[in-house]
Amino acid sequence: MPNSLPHIAITLGDPAGIGTEIVLKYLFQAQKEELPAKITVIGDFCQAQAVFRHLRSIANSPLLDPGEVEFIDLATGLEITWGQGDAHSGECSFRYLERAIKGALAGEFDAIVTAPIAKAAWHQAGHLFPGQTEVLADRSGVTDYGMLFVARSPYTGWVWRTLLATVHIPLGQVTQVLNPALIRQKLALLRRSLQQDFGIQQPQIAVAGINPHSGEEGYLGREEKDWLHPLLQELGIGQSISPDTVWLGAKRAWLEDSHNAPHAYLAMYHDQGLIPMKLLAFAECVNCTIGLPFVRTSPDHGTAFDIAGRGIADYRSLGQAVALAIEMGHRRQQLIDPKPQ
User: Fold this and answer.
1) What angle do CA 219, 184, 249 make, to 5 degrees?
2) Longest Cα separation, the chain
3) Is the pLDDT of residue 103 over 50?
4) CA angle, 276 as apex, 84 and 129 as ends, to 5°?
5) How many Cβ atoms sit within 10 Å of the Cβ of residue 138?
6) Do residues 93 and 14 make contact, with C-beta atoms less than 8 angstroms apart?
């Protein structure tokens, strides 16, 4: 283990959603353990206190008082209505994220864990980004980055990792965006992350096909035959696996036996990769942005405006996101300053 604890910044996300609730629930549980990290929360302290008081009054929820954690108070002064994302809530969540990024780039934090934001609220506030991932990349000055989803099985201990080749684009644009250069780039990025962030020096990667049955020799689509399979053969991977069967191995590894399971998957588009993961691993799944100069993770769910303020939000995905950030933060520290043998 490195000599110093990784410093993790947790942003509260959209204050009209469940972000503050799940953070305070997680921190209440975490204080019972000797957490191998230093935690700092970034948000509006008055808003966080209001959530704490409200939830304690309606359900006596197990929450940590915001006054008991290191807190960077941005004091937005903006009025928020729980369950109603708008320009005010979007402005708040955007400021929280920017402060966390600034701190990470300055070396103040080793990792950022971001609670969910609402893209529509960002747009109403004038911040026209597709999501937090793109802001992280833009502010960090990187173009080679990706969304890697990670979940550890509570049954077998196997770690399921899926990188998305394309992310938040309409389905009709997927085959227009996919090309040999993009797939080569994503596979190289995935290999680097598996080596740097997870300590896997010879990673085994399974690639999902684009078309049904991976094109059926060109009869159901020609992308695999024309360029995907030749590229994968050049890279030593072989061929893509039919999208309707590629996840059977992941199901077996998750529930029964992880022997011979791949270290990671490359999915061609958003729902191809995330439907199976959310079906089997929703509570455990973590969104991780790879390719940044610091670690960033996030729970794999949204703002849940429909249940905001009711005290019933599940904090487990956030807990998994913090655990992964700590693990990756330790590994990054070891790479920078390895312990003497």
Assistant:
1) 65
2) 63
3) yes
4) 40
5) 13
6) yes
Running DSSP on this structure, what letter comes out for residue 227? Answer: I
178 pLDDT above the threshold of 80: yes
How far is it, in rounded angstroms, from Cα 98 to Cα 134?
12
Q: How much is the pLDDT for 277?
A: 95
DSSP run (H or E) holding 42? strand 38-43
User: Of the candidates 115, 80, 86, 112, which has an alpha carbon nearest to the alpha carbon of residue 99?
Assistant: 112
Nearest to 46 by CA among 82, 10, 94, 79: 79
Are residues 317 and 284 in contact, defined by beta-carbon separation less than 8 angstroms? yes
CB 244 within 8 A of CB 213: yes
Whole-number Å distance between alpha carbons of 125 and 122: 5
What is the CATH architecture of 1-142+294-341? 3-Layer(aba) Sandwich (3.40)
d(CA 32, CA 295) in angstroms, rounded, equals: 25
Q: For tokens 């109603």, what's the residue?
A: 84
Backbone angles phi, psi at 122, to 5 degrees: -60, -45
Amino acid at 182: L
pLDDT in tens, 226-266: 999 999 999 999 999 999 999 999 999 999 999 999 999 99
Where exactly does CATH 3.40.718.10 map onto the chain?
Answer: 1-142+294-341, 143-291
Residues in the chain: 341
Q: Specify the CATH number for 143-291; select among 3.30.2350.10, 3.40.718.10, 3.40.640.10, 3.90.1150.10.
A: 3.40.718.10
Query: CB–CB of 261/205 below 8 Å?
Result: no
73 vs 11, 41, 110, CA distance in Å?
11, 8, 19
